[in-house]
Amino acid sequence: MAIAPSQEQLAKLRIEVASWAYGNSGTRFRVFGTPGTPRDPFEKIADAAQVHAATGLAPTVAIHIPWDRVDDYDALRRHAEDLGVAVGTVNSNTFQEEDYKFGSLTHPDARVRRKAVDHHLECIDIMRATGVRDLKIWLADGTNYPGQDSIRARQDRLAEGLAAIYAALDADQRLLLEYKFFEPAFYHTDVPDWGTSFAHTVALGEQAKVVLDTGHHAPGTNIEFIVAQLLRLGKLGAFDLNSRFYADDDLIVGLADPFQLFRIMHELVAGGGYGDPDVQLVLDQCHNIEAKIPGQIRSVLNVQEAVAKVLSIDTEALAAAQRDCDVLLANDILMDAYSTDVRPMLAELRAARGLPEDPMRHFLASGYLERIADERVGGAQASWGA
Ligand code: AOS
Ligand code: ZN
Ligand code: ZN
To answer: What InterPro entries does the annotation carry (predicted)?
Structure first.
């Protein structure tokens, strides 16, 4: 009952990888080192370029300020281009400085709020220097105890800070606001859910969109419903993709619950977001114990497999079954596509595009991992704890 998608449809997939996935990361208990860990942003981009070379799926690399701060952003941009990739989304960081202990854009003290806005203005300058369109804002802001601060006042300060940042954007740039239900704040979070992010981005204007991180919801949340809703509202700007078993685990996408990834991609395709450069697919993961570049290769291939399964859905038959209220047939049509082994068709696609048919094997045989382990000593920690 499944159909065979065209190579043209399959080839539309683009996934952005993130620089911090290549650095050492861990939990609050321990950060484990990996031989060959990049020592600077240039080496992180070099590693990311390997993922694109092996798969043809990951042409852009998100960066993070301050972790990827360099003296010469034009050099970073050229370095990426020389390696066949481009710098992607610029991520701000207002969660690692003492000043931000009680919040950043929502902080009761105007001096701290100004500092947080200024940090975002620096990020926008970096976007100009690197030719980047998107600024992604994830705020750790929130409180730990009822009464600690006024929830309402913090929303007002947030709106004011976001407006100041939005006003600094060029006409072709976007502000993407990510939500997360808890952590590091444990009582209330200032941008906890898609509704709050939606409300703020609507107030800001057309250039502001929502980021949906798949690990940022309470267990049991129907994430594909949020995807469908944000797409129909024209407000889904990007995904942060990863897997979770418990909270914001940032594990390899599609490994904890491949069926959920399929359902999410189904709504992406059904809502017209697939292949639309305005709806970015980004990996937001940390490889605490597994090899990083292979972990990223596995991740982009998992997304590709999920998308190929979705594109195998017989949409006409599905629409007919839905019109007929034929519950079991409709579900069968969906599950049939999900059960399809799409690996042979993807190997064919790669062969047709001059890519290795087995990207993982190709990369592991290339000797790159052994080379960086020899050459690089003393990698930088590129992420924070849990
Ligand atoms: C934090 O939990 C969020 O997922 C962020 O998207 C992300 O991990 C961060 O922006 C990296 O700086
Ligand atoms: Zn995220
Ligand atoms: Zn997260």
So the answer is: L-rhamnose_isomerase, Rhamnose_iso-rel, Xyl_isomerase-like_sf, Xyl_isomerase-like_TIM-brl
Ligand 1 contact via 64 beta carbon (within 6 Å): yes
Mean pLDDT of the chain: 97
Rounded Cα gap, residues 48 and 64, in angstroms: 14
Q: Residue 333 phi/psi, 5° resolution?
A: -65, -45
Selected from 3.40.50.80, 3.40.50.800, 3.20.20.150, 3.40.309.10, the CATH number assigned to the domain covering 11-310 reads 3.20.20.150
Domain boundaries along the sequence of the chain? 11-310
Residue 253, pLDDT score:
98
180 lines ligand 1 (CB under 6 A): yes
Sign of CA dihedral 241, 245, 250, 253: negative
Q: Tell me, using a 6 A CB cutoff, whether residue 92 lines ligand 1.
A: no
Q: Which atom of ligand 1 is nearest to the CA of 178?
A: 6
What confidence category does residue 386 fall into, taking pLDDT thresholds of 50, 70 and 90? very low
199: tokens are: 């409300």
**Can you tell me the mean pLDDT for 358-383?**
89
Mean pLDDT, to the nearest integer, of 206-221? 98
Q: Collect all residues with Cβ–Cβ distance below 8 Å to 60 and sequence separation of at least 6.
A: 14, 16, 17, 85, 86, 87, 88, 89
* CB-CB contact of 271 with 224 (8 Å): no
Distance 23 CA to ligand 1 centre (A): 14
Give buried/exposed letters for 126-150 (b at 16+ CB in 10 A, else e). Answer: bbebbebbbbbbbbbbbbeeeeebe
Is residue 115 within 8 Å of 73, Cβ to Cβ? no
d(CA 386, CA 365): 32
* pLDDT tens, position by position, 18-50: 999 999 889 999 999 889 999 999 999 999 999
- Determine the pLDDT at residue 385: 40
pLDDT surpasses 70 at 261: yes
Per-residue pLDDT reduced to its tens digit, 325-349: 999 999 999 999 999 999 999 999 9
Task: Indicate the SS3 state at residue 177.
Answer: strand
